[in-house]
Design goal:
This protein has 309 residues and is of the alpha/beta class. The chain contains nine helices and ten strands. The strands form two sheets. The protein has a five-stranded mixed sheet with strand order 3-2-1-4-5. Strands 8-7-6-9-10 form a five-stranded mixed sheet, with helices on both faces. Helix 7 packs across helix 8. The relative contact order is 0.17.
Length: 309
């Protein structure tokens, strides 16, 4: 990868580490995306291999430009010291202090937060959440990430940690989760859950988002079975979203992550299911993240800019 034109004076890198894929962006101080890349998240790796993975990915991203700072968003819990604590979806990175690793390998300041927080920061700053003080972000990927921003500040627990609000008990078919719940919202409403529902309808499944694409095409063509899959997904998404809307009462609900790209197929079912809950919360605007699957990485760059100011 190479830069086109003159490299900016200060470049910031955002990294979004998901359970399946890791996305990288380089931006300037105006948050113009200069370059982006995607790689499979390591499932098994030594600390040295992880350092090489991040260092080489960043180096390829910013050829010819000087990095000012790096921001990282990761799924699941993170300790106050920046150590990832998510053995179920990030086994290779659990126990790793990624900011410290980046500071050592790249030699610039590095910062970390939950990936739903970074996605929310990006959308609230330059995306669908511009102009709103109270923003609820739900990311639909390997799992379900949730972040609530009040006037730009993420809601934290009394211990300073990010609430793992994707893990809610909901009504539905048995959906046991590593969190211990027998019917967990994350297991019903993640992109991974939608993928599982679509895979059983595909003759030669790839066990990837390609299966969702095939079923989405059928739904667009009017296939009632395909449409039913997305309607069911919309209702499952609403089951947890209604609880979050009741608790947080946001002005806007933004859906991000790769699952949000299928919003046109489940939008009606989501709205209809939410409308069944009356008097519990003011009706918010519902929007899809403007940056799509790169929203978390762009938000991580926002984190880098804010923390290094």
């Amino acid at each position: 990868m190479t830069w086109s034109g003159v490299a900016p004076a200060r470049t910031f890198v955002g990294i979004d580490v998901g359970g399946t894929a890791t996305r990288f962006v380089a931006v300037d101080e105006e948050l113009t995306v200069l370059q982006s890349a995607i790689a499979s998240t390591p499932a098994r790796a030594t600390p040295a291999e992880l350092e090489t993975f991040f260092a080489e990915s960043v180096a390829e991203l910013v050829v010819g430009s000087e990095i000012a700072a790096i921001g990282v968003g990761v799924s699941g819990p993170i300790s106050a010291e920046g150590i990832i604590q998510n053995p179920d979806t990030l086994p290779a990175l659990t126990g790793v202090n990624v900011p410290a690793l980046l500071r050592h390998s790249v030699g610039v300041p590095a910062y970390i937060d939950n990936d739903a927080v970074t996605a929310a920061l990006g959308e609230a700053t330059v995306g669908a959440g511009r102009g709103y003080d109270h923003v609820l972000m739900v990311t639909l990927g390997t799992g379900v990430g949730v972040s609530m921003l009040n006037v730009g500040e993420p809601v934290r627990g009394a211990d300073g940690q990010h609430p793992e609000a994707g893990h809610l008990g909901v009504d539905g078919p048995p959906a046991p989760c590593y969190c211990g719940r027998r019917c967990c919202w994350e297991q019903l409403a993640s992109r991974q859950a939608l993928q599982r529902s679509c895979t059983v309808l595909v003759e030669d499944p790839r066990n990837s988002s390609a299966d969702i694409d095939l079923v989405a095409d059928r739904a667009t063509s009017g296939d009632p079975v395909a449409r039913a899959v997305f309607d069911d997904y919309g209702r499952r998404l609403a089951a947890g979203a209604a609880t979050l809307l009741t608790v947080f009462r946001p002005q806007i609900l933004i859906l991000g992550g790769s699952g949000s790209t299928y919003f046109p197929h489940f939008e009606r079912a989501l709205h209809d299911a939410l409308a069944e809950v009356t008097g519990a919360y003011p009706t918010p605007r519902i929007a899809v993240a403007e940056f799509g699957e790169y929203g978390g990485a762009i938000g991580a760059a926002v984190l880098a800019i804010a923390r290094s100011a």
